[in-house]
Amino acid sequence: MKMDVTEKASASSSDVNIRGAALSSSSEVMNGSSRTRTSLPTGEASGVPKSKRRSKYRHVAAYHSKLQHSSLSRESNVPTSFLGFRNLMVIVLVAMNLRLIIENSMKYGVLICIRCHDYRKQDVVLGSMLFIIVPCQLFIAYILELAVARRVKETVGRKKKKDKSAEEGEREQREFRTIWRFALSFHILNTLLNLAVTSYVVYYYIHHPGIGTLCEVHAIIVALKNWSYAFTNRDLREAMLNPSAESALPEIYSSCPYPRNITLGNLVYFWLAPTLVYQPVYPRSPEIRWSFVGKRMFEFISLSIFIWLLSAQYAAPVLRNSIDKIAVMDIASIFERVMKLSTISLIIWLAGFFALFQSFLNALAEVLRFGDREFYLDWWNSSSLGMYWRSWNRPVYLFMKRHVYSPLIGRGYSPLTASTVVFLVSALLHELLVGIPTHNMIGVALVGMLFQLPLIAITAPLEKMKDPSGKVIGNSIFWVSFCVVGQPLGALLYFFAWQAKYGSVSKMTQG
Q1: 417 pLDDT band (50/70/90 cuts)?
Q2: Active-site residue (options: 187, 208, 403, 430)
Q3: Is residue 430 among the annotated active site residues?
Q4: 182: in domain
Q5: What ranges does the record give for the region Disordered, renumbered to this chain (predicted)?
Q6: Is residue 128 part of a domain?
Q7: Residue 317: which H helix or E strand, with range?
């Protein structure tokens, strides 16, 4: 009896060991281990017949249990991310431009030459003289406004001493209207004379387009500032002489009321400030962050060098190779050149935008503690051409709105008429800015700006659409019209006109 119990215990222990070994062997095989137990057959190790072994997995999972749509379908409820496609486009863009860099290097070699330049000493001397003379226009405007302000002080002083009759008040109103007409005539003559002298000198005596462009830009900026200075002081004067609810001024002006703002320091600040709209007072930052100024100026200088390198190494060869194609009106080749130039011009334009509006204007605003630094909005997301023009160059937009568009609306003109006048003025300024320095008033910039009006009308409904596809289409029209067709084609036409007239500046000076 004792032996039976011992044998049964031994058999039970042996059975447990055998089953444990079989389970261990099975676990090792499942985990991909190279160690296997071969001492016992599988059937004997498990102790269970093959016909009785069943998998715990059941092939009945309901993988299709609800209505779903494809990711790219319009009916899809889950927003689809296109981050991967964006990354792909960036990679493709980098690869394509890298190919252009290699092709340019193999075909032309290094075209960068620091000592080589196409400007003459006369260009530098005359350009420097214009930069000194042009701001005198503002000081002439200051003298005019100072004389009128003194007349206003005398009038206000007499009002305090005695009460005036209605007839005397009306007589003074007529007198000030006459004074304003006289002052306005001088302001207009001052502005036109400034633009005429600068344009004449640049067109006939400054042959380098870059130097000429800087002089023309400076003259236009000062002319617009002069216009804003004159009209703003006129309305401030009117509000002082005839106070009423309609003539109430913004609260920010209370710290420097008219005519205390007619000072030389106030005018110099406006001359240097990164704005075209005159105010007696501007929001000011508490202190100057010189580290911020240093970073912005480093960006500006670096991007300026980058633009010069791209222009000399990549843009210039494409432009030169396009001359013979334009001469024979080879449309296919011209289109190919425009497409090739579009990438280069886009990069140059974006770099120029960042250098001017983000780097330079912010550095200047920091030095002057100019607080309102909304020099641009997110114009790259513009869903219409109208939104772009309201977003990308805020200083010019605010000037046109305050001194051209809003006065016309106030006089009863329709928004369409006011917008047409705004773009007409802008078109004339663009033609001056491009045609005068290149010595070719061919009207391309003028027509290009006026062509914005039908494009604005076409894309305006897309901006108001609730469907996102409308905004995508409008944004695509904006990019194509500006960066793929507009700017490269304009650059080709003005370069062709320059080459047809002069050949090049260096050849002209040698002759």
Answers
A1: very high
A2: 430
A3: yes
A4: yes
A5: 22-55
A6: yes
A7: helix 316-321
